[in-house]
Design brief:
The protein has about 270 residues and is mostly helical. Helices cover about 80% and strands about 0% of the residues. Helix 3 (about 45-70) runs antiparallel to helix 8 (about 180-205). Pfam families: TauE.
Amino acid sequence: MVENLDASVLVFLALAGLAAGFVDAVVGGGGLIQLPALLVGLPGASPVQLLATNKLGSIMGTTTSSVTYVRRVRPDLRTAVPLALAAFVGSLGGAALAFLISKEAFNPIILTVLVAVGVYTLARPSMGQMQALRFGHRHPRRHLATALLIGAAVGAYDGVLGPGTGSFFVFALVSVLGYGFLEASAKAKIANVATNLAALAVFVPQGAVLWKAGLVMGACNVVGGYLGARVAVARGSGFVRVFFVVVLAAFVVKIGWDTWVQLAGRGGAA
């Protein structure tokens, strides 16, 4: 039974939830820590159970960090709210597709996302240091339309898979719309709450959530999200980047090894 977890697994998932909440609040991408941790800690779970449990843990942390951001950064809700609504709709569609992902495809997909986001993070160390809005006051409709497209696209990805969603929101808001990192992070957290809520609206009625693991990770995600958001407001993301990349690299090695074993076993069976 997947939910019969021993103390060591619960401690491992709790620590992963704490780290994921902290990193997600500051730079996004907490799912890149949390979902691989679920893969490692719950090897008997199905892909949809892992995705659903990750959403439960994540929504608790993203809600906490988004509230902290709204109170301290006061992001422009004229863009944040439509972005979140589009992300909610996109995530609903993506979550419906998540049931089609096979166990064999799950590790390679996660590995690809891990490597892609890791390379992008390393390649853009100064991303979002200054804010220079595109399509701003002169083209507000174009700005809003672009935000809606970002919300729908990233939301769909979050529903069907999820890891790195916060980072993708931040990357898109910074690189496409020209937001500074802190403002983009605040908007990303609001949108991320919407995508997690939409995905859970699909997963919970299907009985896909592993509640014990999800609640343990979620409680620690709350603590990490609160601390991370406060640190982000106070100090920015530079010092967290090294921590993020180190943790990311560790999971690339682990999931990469699992994928290699999976492919080698398939080849041997053939």
